[in-house]
Amino acid sequence: MLFEGHAAGAHYSQAGGGSNYLCLHEEPLWNNYLNGHQSHTGSIYGVEYEVESSNIFSEINNGGYSLDDKPAPCAVCYVQRRSTVLMIPGRNQCPNGWTTEYEGYLVSQYSGPNRDRKRSSYICWDEAPEVAVGNSDENQAVVYPVEVQCGSLPCSKYISGRELTCVVCSK
Asked: From CA 76, how far away is CA 74, in angstroms rounded?
C-alpha cells in the first residue's frame, strides 16, 4: 500500500466537475491557493455511502455498524516489478523511491447549478502550463482549478475553498 486516504468526487446534485472518483491522500500538501470560494472552479467532495435501504455490503469491517451516510476511505496500492505512472491528488510530492514527472493542480469542468453542463475527468495540470500558438477565447473545451469542499472530507486537513495540488509520479 502506498497510502490511505479519503474517497472523493463531484457533488451528486451538481452538473459539471469531475466524473471520476479519486483517492485523496490523508495528509494533503498545499501549494499556492486562493482562500475562499472562487466563482468559476471545479469542486471536489468526500464520498459517503448511501445504502440505507439497499445495503449489499458486509459491515464486518465497520464493527457491524451501518455504513449509511458515513465517509468512504480508500487506499492506493503498488505492485512491484511493473511499470507504473500514478497521479496523486492532494499532494505535490511523490512517495519515497518514486520519480516526479511533474506537479501541478487538479482541474476539471466548471461545477455549478447549470444542468446542461457535462462532467469531465479530474486531471493533473502542470503548475507552469504552456500556451499553444493562437488566440481563440472560444470557450469550447475548458478546464478550471478544483477547489476542496470539506464536510465528508475532514475540514481540519481539507480546507474549503483551497485549490487542490497534484503530482504525477513514475516507478
From this structure: 7
